[in-house]
Every structure is written in structure tokens, then in C-alpha cells.
Amino acid sequence: MPEVKAHSWISLWFLLTAPVIAWDAGYCFMRPRSMEGGDLHWIWKPYSIYQNVDLIYGLPALLSNDGFTNAQSMLNVIETLMNIAYLYLAHVSRWPGAPLVGFSSALMTLAKTILYWAQEYYCNYCAIGHNSAKDLVIYWIIPNGLWIVIPSFIVYRLGKDLVNSLNLASAVSGKASARKNQ
Q1: For 109-127, how does the pLDDT look when each residue is reduced to its tens digit (9 = 90+)?
Q2: Are 22 and 52 in contact (CB under 8 A)?
Q3: Shortest CA distance to 105 belongs to which of 84, 129, 131?
Q4: Whole-angstrom Cα distance, residue 157 to residue 103?
Q5: Smallest Cα–Cα separation from 85: which of 110, 71, 70, 103?
Q6: What sign does the dihedral 126-37-137-107 (CA atoms) show?
């Protein structure tokens, strides 16, 4: 079986982000019980700050039945399941297609996060525009920016690995065809 090239920093990112995403999805799917004043808020105490920084996570979105919060959370869950699948496929079963799963998952995360930022831009910062510059940078730009920067590096690295694998397969296939035609 061909060797699967697994990058430890990618595996570490996928492993460490799984519980963070599960915690975040739990908050979103359990609203209003997870919100400040809810009986389960103790599990998501730091969200008492975030729900007031990003109103998509707060009361205004909940009261207006804005489905974006839970829709993006559902995609987060799918991406995380793909990340876990990558970890299994790359490290346990050593399946050569594992990089494609990791690439696809990171690309989904990147695209969804860019959509999240674009939505803010196109609604004139309707959910975050009320923040001070300091709060915006500390509580929104830096943490959400990580979900653009690191998945971008993962897409680049795994994309490069995929191209190298395709080039190798093409070269091997070309040599086999050349031998066959002789």
C-alpha cells in the first residue's frame, strides 16, 4: 500500500479543534438554555461575553429566528467529523485518500469562515459593528481569524501533497503505457 504522508501539525489542529467545535455547536444548538440566564449556561460561561460581541450568537439572532447560527454550526459538525475521519484514515488505516478528506474539510472550513466574514461586511457589520475596536480585535477578529489562517495553510499543504501524488501517478501511468506500446 502507498505511504500516507500525515503532517503532525495538521493532525494536531484537527484533534485540538474537535472538542472546541463540539462545545461551540452545543452552545448554538442548545440556545436559549446555553445562553446567559439559561439553566445550562454554566457549561458555556465564556459565551456570556461572546453572545454580546457577535450578535449572531446572541439574543437578537435567536429572537428573530435567524437560522445562520445553527446552519454554520451544522457545517462545523460535518467538518469536524471529516477531520476525525482524516485522523483515522491517515494514522490508523493509512488510506492513501486521507489527504483528500483533510483537504476537503479544511477547504469547507475556510469557505464557511470567509462566508461568515463576508456576511458581516455585506450587512454593514450588523452583528459585530457595535463593538469597540479593542473588543472586536480580541473577541472576534483574532479567534475567527484563526479559522481562516490555519485552514488556509492546511489547504495549501494538503493541496501540494495531492498534486505531488497526482504527478507521481501520472508519471507511473505514462511509463507503464510507454512499456505497453513497445
Answers
A1: 999 999 999 999 999 999 9
A2: no
A3: 84
A4: 9
A5: 103
A6: negative
